[in-house]
Amino acid sequence: MNTSGSTLDPDVPKKKLTKESFRQGLRIFRYVLPYRTKFIIGMVLLALSSATVMAFPWVIGKLTDAANGRPFVLPNGDALTIDYIAIGLFVIILFQGVFSFGRIWFFTQVSEFTVRDIRQALYRKFVTLPIPYFEKNRVGAITSRITSDVGQIQDTFSLTLAELFRQITTLIVGTVFIMMVSVKLSLFMLATFPPIVLLAMFFGRKIRILAKATQDELAKTNVIVEETLQGINTVKAFTNEQFETNRYTASLTNTVRAALRSNRYRGGFVSFVIVGLFGGIILVLWRAATLVAAGQMTIGDLTSFALYTIFIGASVGGLGELYGKVQSTLGASERILEILDEPSEPTHRPRMAGIAPLQVRGDIDYQNVAFSYPTRPDLPVLKDISFDIQAGEKIALVGPSGAGKSTIVQLLMQFYELSAGKILIDGRDVRLFDLTELRGHIGIVPQETLLFGGSIRENIAYGKTDATDAEITEAARKGNAWQFISSFPEGLDTVVGERGIKLSGGQRQRVAIARAILKNPAILILDEATSSLDSESEKLVQDAMDELMKDRTSIIIAHRLSTIRKADKILVIDGGRIVEQGRHEELSNSENGLYANLLKLQFELS
Ligand SMILES: Nc1ncnc2c1ncn2[C@@H]1O[C@H](COP(=O)(O)OP(=O)(O)OP(=O)(O)O)[C@@H](O)[C@H]1O
User: Which parts of the chain are coiled coil (predicted)?
Assistant: First the structure.
């Protein structure tokens, strides 16, 4: 097994080559179906190219016999001289060249298109999988499905299948040919091969197990790289560069150890095949020489026989390796199919003809909502949450860290299923809405805005991908983002993200607000940033938020006193329950209330 970078999930159980796993793996072939004509042409060319290869030793035998004064006689009685036979060989090789080119051409097309379709299907599946899936599986492991597992399948369609077909035909046709040349010698030859095959299979099994171990170790090293590079700020802030380097080195050492062990067996396998194979050839040649000496065989037949034997031997040797490849492919295709079989969120249901688009007013009603995260089912995060909001009202959620505020708003988007209770929007259970349509009416301004690599224009238009320039500019103006955008020489085309300029926290928030304004949702979720901005930036953000909240039902996870003061109702959350609710004035006057205490801590002291 090489260590070229394939990252397989160490948690995936090893797949044995059984009838069932084979049947399962073959399901990946449905992606080949659209290209079946090309595939069939490729297979025909492959068969033809195999046939020309198999004809070669036979004609060489005839050439040798012609050299020994036994010209080849055609069925019509014409005798072919050495020159003609040699020309025949040339023609065969020419055809072989043409067929091989065609086979590669067609198989490459099939594999490229098939792999594109599989990747596309996987990606579409990824983005429609429910959030809990991503919490239960590591992103690195998921992405390796779309890279290395699909790559494995690509190898199969472009190379392994052809190889497998060729080896098997060589084995079968070769055996038939040698039988035609000399039954006695063939039986002798065949008696020497089964033991080699059996031993090769045993070796193959062992190698496979070790190869899997190498891949697992490699996957672990890749996880370290991914995690630490993603969190490079944390690594540096904790000055853990050396610690991480050591961790990575230790993991690499394990990979090398596993790879060396696996390759020791591979080396053994190769030398075993060489010794076994050539030993077998020597035995067969010895027997053949005896037959020729006794006049029971011609030199030409012996030549053909020897060449076929080499072909057969090589294909037996190659089969061991192919067996391993087929297994990896089955494993890879099973992992891919497993993901494709995962249930998606019920998004993007096609609307039935004649039904008007969903209208949302924005009344929200939480009724006895209880919830635990699927990754920690025994830890109730929300317990019996009930509140209602009239359309257009502004609700502030406040409470200590970990109280469950973000969880409350995530449930409105239906990122998770409730453990108990109901959430109603406009008096209707959210589960009865079309998920895509419903989410289309909810806007969100998160605490940390994720800007995608690209222009500011693209980032704002993320709220409405078909927005016109005028709409985008208008949204940027309302979101108080226009001042800084227009100060950049490239304006809306300024590139942000990894390869572009870095926007400040306040600027990013205003882009997010412009994005939400463009989306124009009935319901708004605002997660205020805890980090304070300078007062000018704060004012710009605040004004933009006020503009955004106009005439919309808004739920704000509030950290700013100014927001809280303006809220129609404040819900104080603690330990997954609403412990107090009311307006700012009422709550702040209740001496021993949590709200009054929080206020003191959070605002007055600062
Ligand atoms: N994806 C998740 N999987 C499992 N547990 C989670 C997840 N997200 C949050 N939790 C847990 O749920 C509880 C509530 O978290 P939540 O983020 O809702 O709190 P919060 O009130 O918004 O806190 P903060 O103000 O710090 O953001 C916490 O104990 C947290 O550890």
Answer: none
Q: Cα–Cα distance between 584 and 581 in angstroms, integer?
A: 9
Ligand 1 centroid from CA 576, angstroms = 10
> What residue segments make up the domains of the chain, in order of their start?
19-341, 364-604
19-341: CATH number: 1.20.1560.10
Confidence band of 4 (pLDDT split at 50, 70, 90): very low
Q: How many angstroms separate the alpha carbon of residue 402 from the centre of ligand 1?
A: 5
Closest ligand 1 atom to Cα of 401? 26
Query: Once rounded to an integer, what is the mean pLDDT over residues 10-14?
Result: 38
**From ligand 1's centre to the CA of 446, what distance in Å?**
14
Q: Which residue's CA lies nearest to atom 31 of ligand 1? A: 402
Residues 6+ apart with CB under 8 A from 460: 467, 472, 475, 476, 481, 492, 511, 514, 515, 518
What the block records as the tokens of 262 is: 């696996």
- Give the per-residue pLDDT at 194: 63
Pocket test for ligand 1, best of 379, 405, 526, 594 (most atoms within 8 A of CB): 405
At 106 the pLDDT is: 93
| ipTM metric | 0.95
**Residue 134 CA to ligand 1 centre (angstroms):** 16
Looking at ligand 1, which residue's alpha carbon is closest to its atom 9? 407
Q: Which residues lie with the beta carbon below 6 Å from any ligand 1 atom?
A: 135, 373, 375-376, 381, 399, 401-407
Res. 5 pLDDT band, cuts 50 70 90: very low
Residue 170, amino acid: T
Burial category of 170 from C-beta neighbours within 10 Å (exposed 0-12, middle 13-18, buried 19 and up): buried
Q: Residue 99, CB half-sphere, CA atoms under 13 Å: how many?
A: 18
Average pLDDT in the chain: 85
Whether 535 shows a pLDDT value over 80: the answer reads no
Return the pLDDT at 351: 59
User: Given this structure, which CATH class describes domain 364-604?
Assistant: alpha beta
